[in-house]
Fold:
Amino acid sequence: MNANDHRGGLLRLSKYSRDYYGGGLMLLVGAGAIYKGFDYQVGTLTRMGPGYFPVAVGVVLAVMGALIALGARRQSPATAKTKTHSRPEWRGWICIILANIAFVVLGRYGGLVPATFAVVFIAALGDRQNSIKSALLLALSMVIVSVAVFAWALQLQFPLIRWG
Amino acid sequence: MEQSLIDLWHGFGVALAPNNLWWSFFGVLVGNLIGVLPGMGALSAISILLPLTYGLHAVPAILMLAGIFYGSQYGGAIGAILLNLPCHPPHAVTCLDGYPLTKQGRGGAALGITMMSSFFAASVGILVMIFASPVLVGIAFKFGPAELFSIMLLGLLAGGTMSRGSPTKGVAMTCLGLLAGVVGTDVNSGTPRFTFGFIELSDRLELVALALGVFGIADFLHNVNKVESAGGGVKVRLRDMRPSKSEMKQAFWPMVRGTLVGTLFGAMPGTGPTITTFISYAIEKKISKTPERFGHGAIEGVASPEASSHSKTQVDFIPTMSLGIPGDAVMALLLGALLIQGIQPGPQLITEHADLFWGLIASFWIGNVLLLLLNVPLIGVWVKILRVPYRLMYPAAMFFIAVGVYSTNNSLFEVGEVLVFGIIGAVLIALDFPVAPILLGYVLGPNVEENFRRALLLSHGDMTVFVDRPISAAFVALCALLVLGQVGFWLRKKLRSRGKEDSSSREENAPADAATDP
Structure:
């Protein structure tokens, strides 16, 4: 089904490596949950401690991870495609991540207006087709929306401008 | 049954109260609007607007959220048919025949048929809901911790294995969600778990942050610079919307059959609407005299899946409201909204919050009529919105996500949580994991743990309690069947691919996908 293909755009890994690393990752997370769970007192079936449930779920997760990774190995890696890497989208990714961080930092030290401006402006720069001017315009119009809708209409508890 | 009708009458009174009606209308309108936007489905729509409901009374709040829900479902169908963009997974099947119809210039008619089948299916679903809920509630009162645990286990298993892609990956994601639900302070002992030293985490992870992270930010990370603008040169006018008589005739029985499939599946917890759409599409193709038309613009292929997903959605409210067990991630989010309002879903909900329950049912009907009325004149507007370029849409959405999460608890820490979940979600999607089960696991997690503990405390650590009690045993048996079925599928696939190894044509599709490939 090609209808869902537009979702898989991040990095086209081959199915083999997707399963192999995905399974491995789940195995690790499961093992981590088991390890941490034992720190919190497991207890007995009748009197379960806080660690019992995380350990149990961790075991299932680790088993699933192992199954996924093993399944990947059995599908003869020789036939797996190796080339299908699409170009990583560093500019977009960094801008989206920075935009979110900027909102947190500026929201803490600057207030709603600078935070809104920053999140929209930086995120917009992540798209190669946006010029500085169009990003600026978009950011400014979102500031107006933000002030009108969230600060004024919804009475959000967030100072518009905060000093220091 | 008579009592149901009286209650329903009362429910209409609640739903038609001006204040409630206004919020319901607002929900439908905004849900429809967001649903049309590419990449935004019911989940993101509800997550974004969830904070709005905190200031509201419980009844208008839940009416509005339900309105957003079916509004965005309607909206999603528009994107699927006109642009081949399934923003909401159940519409993936609608694309198969809807988009070819658009290319043949019958997109308007496909939309019209979609609206009619949705309305018909929703009405049937509502009827079932009215008469089945009290019966189900009677059974639900017999539920103890053991039964609750087993049925939730079934829901989690079904949600994990029946979602898109490999069942092992689905179950792994469900477990990840359960672990995410563990984060915070243990209610029984007060031990902080998985908080990694953050005081902010001792009060559970934030549901909205999790949902917007894995569905919003993760999606932007994938689509930035990849998706240009959703809309091409699509034009739909009002008078194109009227399907011809022969099309109506062709669509009628598929619509009825789709409704039936959706209703049957609705009562099963954990099966999302996606699977029902696949099944109803497969049925239509199977019984059709001209199966070769499917995939090239068969109107039946639009009517039946759309009907099944809408009736499923309506009936899904029964387990969600009366047992507290959501069918899919969207229901899980609605359940979370109820909990935030201080309302505990369960068998007592119908008696204790009769105004809410019956008001909700009545509002479904009103909401569906509103949708019909709204969509006829607004179709032109939706088509225009689809043409808004992605480069303008996602930065604006980033802001809405940030401010939406902030407003849930006035906490910037949670805005940071969104980013973390977004990155995790993007990695998981890249590794081909379905992310929806995470949300299901997260919402059910604390309940599963609590009931598991309680059941075993009552039975003094005797695990047989889950198979000794008949209702619980039935659910455990279903779970076992599900697991065995999956193992069987896997074995059959294995054997088949071994036979085909030489011709090196491997089949990678999930069974459900294979059944629908034209």
Remarks:
- The longest strand of chain B covers residues 184-185.
- The two ends of chain B are 45 Å apart (CA to CA).
- Chain B is about 75% helix and 0% strand.
- Residues 502-518 of chain B have pLDDT under 50 and may be disordered.
